[in-house]
Amino acid sequence: xxxxxxxxxLEDSYTVFRVFYDSIADFADRYCFGEWSRDPQVIDGLWDxxxxxxxxxxxxxxxxxxxxxxxxxxxxxxxxxxxxxxxxTELFVHPDSQSVGLGQELFKRVFPGEGGNRKVIIATTEVxxxxxxxxxxxxxxxxxxxxxxxxxxxxxxxxxxxxxxTGSDEDFNSLxxxxxxxxxxxxxxDHTFWIAxxxxxxxxxxxxxxxxxxIDRDGGPFALLNEEDFPAVLTHAEREASQMSDxxxxxxxxxxxxxxxxxxxxxxxxxxxxxxxxxxxxFGQFDxxxxxxxxxxx
Length: 298
Fold this sequence. Notes:
By secondary structure, this protein is an alpha+beta fold. About 35% of the residues lie in helices and about 30% in strands.
């Protein structure tokens, strides 16, 4: 089966979202991860929530490719490059065009094997995709699970200061220092997006920045220099989220002991949907980190 390929643009955002939705709904059906609604109103409602994310990825992509068959979008893939870290954000093929080699062709276009960049994928457990990533030398390091509950307005006692992020030069200097310590790279473009679309906080102790976090219905990311601060930070986040939504969702590396223990002891439920953090080499301190939700990228 042959396909026509072209680079993606910002104007393709809704079209690729629909391929994402059809693909992940089919995956959830096949692997018994729960039913995704086919109601057009539900799908368009999710698009309203995710539109800014798709536009951000389109505006900051490294590679973005679409594959067409008979003028219909059959699949797409996208990657971003942040301070020497190449990350596959999406690779989705419509169920009607799977198992014919299209995924591999898209993967090669956005995630080349050559070059000196560190490589990262947050992957589903879809077997064909995992085999492709493993063959490319990208290996699973830890699982990521979604935790959720109705947020409560909790009491908080902490020696931390919780300062709203405003996007000042001082804020970005602190964010870069924390990201280098926790993630081994910086990502100003992503922080600019999160500051514009979420409620961001810088955490200080004794006048020194010790972490940051972003809060809305889909919480994260959170990065802390001291992982023992997660109970206080997540209590604050839940309290803030209670003013925004009736649901609060966090994508948590299961190696983050302090976050996991806090969430389980506070009645959060685990989703049946599992993601895997994959990389070509070990790096970072992910027991100090919570992934942004939805987990398209770090």
